[in-house]
Amino acid sequence: MAQKRPGMMIAMFDIPEELDEEFNTWYNEEHIPEKVGTVPGFLRARRYQSLEGRPNYVCVYELEDVSVVDNPAYQSNYKSGSTTTQFMKSKAKTFYRNVYIEIGDFQGIPLPADD
After folding, report:
1. Could you report the per-residue pLDDT of 30-80, keeping only the tens digit for each?
2. What order do you get walking across the sheet with 94-101 strand by strand?
3. Are the C-beta atoms of residues 57 and 12 closer than 8 Å to each other?
4. Beta-carbon neighbour count of residue 39 at 10 Å?
5. Of 39, 22, 26, residue with least CA distance to 78
6. Long-range contacts of 74-81 (CB under 8 A, 24+ apart)
7. How far apart are CA 96 and CA 5, in angstroms?
8. Eight-class DSSP state of 53
9. I need a surface site. Which of 15, 43, 95, 100 has the fewest CB within 10 A?
């Protein structure tokens, strides 16, 4: 049995401001559920919005093993996608999707509590 290679997939979108609400609804209610809880090995998703700079949205998917992106359930969704998925990707000024393998796990010092 092959050794697991944990990792993450990062998706970055630069979405026009007028689509913010529609984009966030789609991402939270459709796009993430198509992966997390549906495709085995997609463990968790965390979304972030930029305070400044572009792309303005990032989603980090925690992967049990980087090979999960080869799963037919994921590949089918990634290649075809719903009408809304295709619309959002077409409206993105930029879209990046990369898979990364974990090469280290380091813990920091917690920030002091605000008084």
Report:
1. 999 989 988 999 999 999 999 999 999 999 999 999 999 998 888 887 888
2. 42-49, 57-63, 7-14, 94-101
3. yes
4. 20
5. 39
6. 74/35, 74/39, 74/42, 77/34, 77/35, 77/39
7. 22
8. S
9. 100
